[in-house]
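DUF4248 domain-containing protein: structure, please.
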Amino acid sequence: MNYKENSFIIRTYTKAELAHLYNPTIGIKVALQILRRWIMHNPTLLHELEEEGYHARNRLLSPRQVATIVRYLGEP
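Here you go.
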């Protein structure tokens, strides 16, 4: 049987935590910049997140916002 040991779970994440999951080999600050850039350069993703209450300065991402990000960017 082939399955992921550490499969990604949709839950509340800090933005830094999610950014680090997407970019585990770089520092948190740079990982946050990259995640922010990915969101800002995808107008459809940004619009959908804003409809879900997202603001660029939010530190926490709701499970719904995380699910939206994963839908556009794939699992970290």
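Notes: The longest strand covers residues 13-14.
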